[in-house]
Specification:
By secondary structure, this protein is α/β, with parallel strands linked by helices. 42% of the residues lie in helices and 19% in strands. It contains 15 helices and 16 strands. The protein binds one RNA strand through residues 34-37, 41-42, 57, 59, 62, 89, 91-96, 98-99, 115, 141, 144, 146, 184, 210, 212-217, 241-247, 250, 263-266, 268-270, 272-273, 275, 284, 286-288, 321, 323, 325-326.
Length: 369
RNA sequence: GUGGCCAUGGUGAAGCGGUUAACACUUACGACUGUGACUCGUACAUACGAGGGUUCGAUCCCCUCUGGCCACC
């Protein structure tokens, strides 16, 4: 994997770049839709491609449980297994340390309770790395501890140091198979911890760096601060990935502060519960005022769903609990995100990023809504 | 025709003398940020078939009516 920084916005820290992988190039800033189990919830790879996705995210933890990295490897790797020949990034399972209820964290790793079988499974930096190597994604993530928010300083400091140590163990576990290992900066909402973590990780000369432990309830204002504290300590010539973010406004604010990559479940998850993104804000298609609304979800959108279906039809599909309600909605939401990213890149290229951001937010957050 | 049982919101239903009529579903509106088609939050019977009566007080007791179910003729 290689990253080429094409330009930096003269009015902000927004950047334009290209990540090259053996499965193709990725234009940054980019949003990565999430396909945790090796499947993007309701969409086929062909549909994912149609939304404009350049890279998707899968999760090593989930694939380890089912069907197991050994089987994926035997199938020829994750790309071949799931029929997706563009770049893939796998998350290590570090986030599950944060999000799953039954786990025990030690200095060496984390014990999880298998959700289905109830058996105990153990993940540590070495095993998480090995799993991801077997899966064969283009970019793999370090095994970290995603610190909950709020969190007291002493725990945050101890956890952050552990994450740094774990990163070194991940790096040591790497074999030269062409995959790129990204480190994950933690440090909760403490400026010095974020800076310390970024500086320490920078010394390891990794192909990319991410910021983790955000979007865990701290809110947009703190998110902006955390990104602002961290980015200056990261190398210019390596991609920066803000994990698990976010809403359109979160992404715009973070691009402005120098982030290149994003992932989030929001567009696909919201699609399943009838929340759709439009240039004028989110709408919830199950609301009864859409029952007789014969306009597309977003009249300015050129996705398959908006070109062919009305809000009234989608409202009907959700009411009738038809599975393609999720399919058509996900196509739109993912397309919406990726179109926004495309426009962000165009704006940076034209030195008009801040104007674009203001214009977008004015329409999206809007007057009435 | 006679006897018995029952009648609570959009639905299924608790309560059976005492200030807010349980719960579930539906519905409505929210939430969801390194993903269980999940889940969660909030709202929703001035009202207990109708009319009388007893009582300090009735959805809960009594009478009549109306409606439904069952049994017998």
């Amino acid at each position: 994997m290689k990253f080429k920084l094409l330009k930096t916005d003269p009015h902000s820290s927004a950047r334009l770049g290209i990540i090259s992988t053996s499965h193709g190039d990725i234009q940054t800033p980019i949003f990565m839709p999430v396909a945790t189990h090796g499947a993007m919830k309701p969409l086929t790879p062909a549909q994912i491609t149609e939304t404009g996705a350049q890279i998707i995210l899968s999760n090593a933890y989930h694939l380890h449980l089912q069907p197991g990295e050994g089987l994926v490897k035997k199938a020829g790797g994750l790309h071949k297994f799931m029929g997706w020949n563009k770049p893939i990034l796998t998350d290590s399972g570090g986030f599950q340390v944060f999000s799953l209820p039954n786990k025990r964290i030690t200095e060496e790793g984390v014990f999880f309770k298998h959700e289905i079988t109830g058996s105990e499974i153990f993940l540590d930096p070495a095993s998480a790395t090995r799993i991801q190597q077997d899966l064969g994604a283009d970019i793999i993530m370090a095994f970290d501890e995603c610190i909950p928010y709020p969190c007291d300083r002493s725990y945050a400091e101890q956890s952050t140091k552990k994450t740094i140590r774990w990163l070194k163990e991940c790096q040591n576990a790497m074999t030269d198979n062409g995959q790129a290992l990204f480190g994950i900066v933690q440090g909760s909402v403490f400026e010095d911890l974020r800076a310390m973590c970024a500086k320490e990780m920078r010394k390891l000369d990794l192909p990319g760096y991410s910021i983790g432990g955000v979007s865990v309830g701290e809110g947009l204002e703190l998110l902006k601060k955390v990104v602002g504290w961290t980015v200056p300590h990261l190398p210019e010539d390596k991609p920066r990935y803000l994990m698990g973010v976010g809403l359109p406004e979160d992404i715009l604010e973070s691009v402005e502060r120098g982030i290149d990559m994003f992932d989030c479940v929001i567009p696909t998850r919201y699609a399943r519960s009838a929340t759709l993104f439009t240039r004028r804000g989110k709408i919830r298609l199950t609301n009864k005022n859409y029952k007789r609304d014969f306009y597309p979800i977003d009249p300015t959108c050129n996705c398959y769903t908006c070109q062919n279906f009305t809000r009234a039809y989608l409202h009907h599909l959700f009411t009738a609990n038809e599975v393609i309600s999720a399919v058509l909605s996900a196509i739109h939401n993912v397309h919406f995100y990726l179109k926004m990213m495309e426009e962000i890149r165009e704006a940076i290229a034209n030195n008009t990023f801040l104007a674009y951001k203001d214009h977008f937010l004015a329409g999206y957050l809007g007057s009435g809504k």
